UniProtKB/TrEMBL annotation:
Residues 1-19 form the signal peptide. GO terms for molecular function: phosphoric diester hydrolase activity. Gene3D superfamilies: 2.60.120.200, Phosphatidylinositol (PI) phosphodiesterase. This is GP-PDE domain-containing protein. It comes from Actinophytocola xinjiangensis.
Length: 497
C-alpha cells in the first residue's frame, strides 16, 4: 500500500491575488477592473453585508451597491423601490421606517431561487449605507461605489463626508444631474458615469470632461473596440455594465476594456488573468474532496462560490475510506452528487477534469463517472459490456467520443484525467497517470469551444435518470486550463489503495 501524498487534496482556493502583474496599486487601493455588482451577488444575496464581505474576500477592487431613503430618512441599501422581489414581504421603502425594513429577511428571494435552506443561507437584514461604509473603511484594498436610486445623492455624499470616507468611495449612475451633483459637492469623489445602449459618444465625452467625471461605464449592448478606444483616448477609464456571460467578458477583455461590472466576481477575475496561484492550484475552478464526513452537502473548496457545493442525492453517503481521507459511496441505483451551478464558463476553450474512482462492477451497464449538465460538454463513463473507460467532448464545432481499451479493475482505486484544448482540437484521456487514448480534430482548432453547461453531475450522466456508478468517487477537480501530461501523471501516480 502506498501512502497518498496529497498532491491535490486540500487545494482550497486562496482567492486570486489582487496585487499582481497587470494590475496596479495606487494609494494602497488595488486596481484589477472587477466591480462586484450589488456585491458578490452570483453567490450571495444581493446588496447584503455578506455579499459585500465576500466580494472583498474574492478580490474585487470595487463593491457596488444601491441606495434608497426610508420614510424616516435613513439611507438603506436596496436596488428596488419595493422589497417583494428579494425579501419575504413586500414593503415600499419610501413609505416604511427603517425599524419596519429591519424586520425583513432580504435573503429570502436568493434562498428560494437557488433551492437552499435557512441553514445554508441564514436570514439577513437590510443594511444601512453606513454599515457598508464602515465595512469598506476597515480595509485598504477595495472601494465602494454608491448608486443613488432616488433623490438621496446629497445625503449620501454628506454621510460619506461625515465618516471621512471619500478615499474609499465612488458614485455611479446614468443620471447626469446626480453625478454632476456629486462632483459639485465633493470633487475628490470618483464618479462612474453609466452610458446607455445608444448615444452620441463625442457629446458624452465632452460632457464627462466638462463635469470632471473619472470613468465611463457603457451598457454592454453598445461596447465595441472603437467605443473602448475612444473612451480611453479621451483619458477616461472604460467599463461595461452589467456583464455576467463569460463569453462576453472574454470578448470585452480581449478588446482592452478596463472594467467590468459583474455578479460573477470569481469568473471575471480569472478571465482578466488575476490568478497568481502556482502549480496545480493555478486555474482550479472546482474541487470536491468529499472529506465532509457528514450531512448532505459536499463542499467545493476550489471556488469561493458556495453554490458550487455538491448535493448528495439518493443514498449517496460520505465514507472515511477514500483514496485520500474521505470519499462518497454510490450504490448504482440513483445515488449521485449534483452540482447545480455552472463550474466551467460558457464556451470554455480549454479544461482539465480529474477524479479518483473505485468501480464495484465495471461492465454491468453504462456507468457515468461524471458529466456536465445542460449538455455533455464533458463526459467520463464506463461502457456497457466491456467496462472500458470512455470519454466525450461536445463543442460548438463537433463532438468527440473516444473509447479506450482499458477496463478499470473492480474494487480498486483508479485515477482518471481528461483534458481538452480548442486551440489544437486535441483531447486526451489518462488512466492511472498514463495516456490511454486521444483524439485530434482539425475542425476544432481555434473554433471548437465547449457548448454551454449549467452544472455537473458526479456518479451519473446529465439527466440523472440512469447510468449510475456503483462504487465510490474521491477528489474531483476541474481546471480552466490544460494540465501538462506530467501534471496529470503526477496526479495519477500519487498513490493508491
Amino acid at each position: 500500500m502506498l501512502v497518498l501524498v496529497g498532491v491535490i487534496a486540500g487545494l482550497a482556493l486562496a482567492p486570486p491575488s489582487t496585487a499582481q502583474p497587470g494590475s496596479s496599486v495606487t494609494r494602497d487601493f488595488v486596481h484589477n477592473g472587477v466591480t462586484a455588482h450589488r456585491g458578490y451577488s452570483a453567490a450571495y444575496p444581493e446588496n447584503t453585508m455578506s455579499a459585500f464581505a465576500e466580494g472583498l474576500r474574492a478580490g474585487a477592487d470595487w463593491i457596488e451597491l444601491d441606495v434608497f431613503t426610508s420614510a424616516d430618512g435613513q439611507l438603506v441599501v436596496s436596488h428596488d423601490a419595493t422589497t417583494g422581489r428579494f425579501a419575504d414581504r413586500d414593503l415600499r421603502i419610501a413609505q416604511s421606517t427603517y425599524a419596519e425594513l429591519r424586520t425583513l429577511d432580504v435573503a429570502h428571494g436568493f434562498r428560494e431561487a437557488n433551492g437552499l435552506t435557512l441553514a445554508q443561507v441564514p436570514r439577513q437584514r437590510m443594511p444601512l449605507l453606513s454599515d457598508a461604509l464602515r465595512l469598506i473603511k476597515g480595509q485598504h484594498r477595495a472601494r465602494l461605489s454608491i448608486q443613488p436610486k432616488d433623490g438621496s445623492t446629497a445625503a449620501a455624499v454628506a454621510l460619506v463626508q461625515d465618516l471621512r470616507a471619500q478615499r474609499w468611495v465612488g458614485f455611479n449612475d446614468g443620471n447626469l444631474a446626480k453625478m454632476s451633483l456629486v462632483k459639485e459637492l465633493d470633487p475628490s469623489i470618483h464618479v462612474f458615469w453609466d452610458l446607455p445602449a445608444n448615444g452620441d459618444l463625442d457629446t458624452e465625452l465632452a460632457t464627462a470632461r466638462d463635469r470632471g467625471f473619472d470613468s465611463l461605464v457603457v451598457n454592454q449592448a453598445r461596447v465595441s473596440p472603437a467605443v473602448i478606444a475612444a473612451i480611453e483616448e479621451a483619458g477616461f477609464e472604460s467599463g461595461a455594465w452589467t456583464v455576467n456571460d463569460t463569453e462576453v467578458m472574454r470578448r470585452f477583455i480581449g478588446w482592452g476594456i478596463d472594467r467590468l461590472y459583474t455578479d460573477s466576481v470569481d469568473q471575471a477575475l480569472l478571465l482578466f488573468g488575476h490568478d497568481t496561484r502556482r502549480g496545480l492550484r493555478r486555474g482550479l475552478v472546482g474541487h470536491w474532496s468529499f472529506d465532509d464526513r457528514r450531512g448532505a452537502s459536499a463542499r467545493d473548496d476550489g471556488s469561493p462560490n458556495p453554490l458550487r457545493d455538491g448535493r448528495l442525492r439518493g443514498d449517496a453517503a460520505f465514507t472515511p475510506h477514500g483514496q485520500h481521507r474521505g470519499a462518497v459511496t454510490l450504490d448504482g441505483d440513483g445515488d449521485h452528487v449534483d452540482v447545480p451551478f455552472q463550474v466551467l464558463p460558457d464556451q470554455a476553450p480549454a479544461y482539465t477534469v480529474s477524479a479518483w474512482f473505485r468501480p464495484q462492477r465495471p461492465g454491468h451497464g453504462r456507468q457515468a463517472i461524471l458529466e456536465t449538465t445542460g449538455s455533455w460538454a464533458i463526459s467520463l463513463e464506463l461502457t456497457n459490456v466491456d467496462g472500458h473507460l470512455k470519454y466525450s467532448v461536445r463543442t460548438d464545432g463537433t463532438s468527440v467520443i473516444a473509447e479506450s481499451d482499458r477496463t478499470p479493475r473492480a474494487g480498486r482505486w483508479h485515477h482518471v484525467g481528461l483534458s481538452y484544448d480548442a486551440a489544437t482540437g486535441a483531447s486526451r484521456l489518462f488512466l492511472d497517470g498514463t495516456e490511454v487514448t486521444s483524439f485530434v480534430d482539425a475542425r476544432e482548432r481555434g473554433t471548437g469551444e465547449l457548448t454551454d453547461t449549467t452544472g455537473l453531475r458526479i456518479g451519473t450522466y446529465r439527466d440523472a435518470d440512469g447510468r449510475f456508478l456503483h462504487g465510490a468517487v474521491d477528489e474531483v477537480a476541474v481546471w480552466n486550463r490544460v494540465l501538462r501530461p506530467e501534471e496529470l501523471s503526477r496526479l495519477g501516480r500519487s498513490g493508491r489503495r
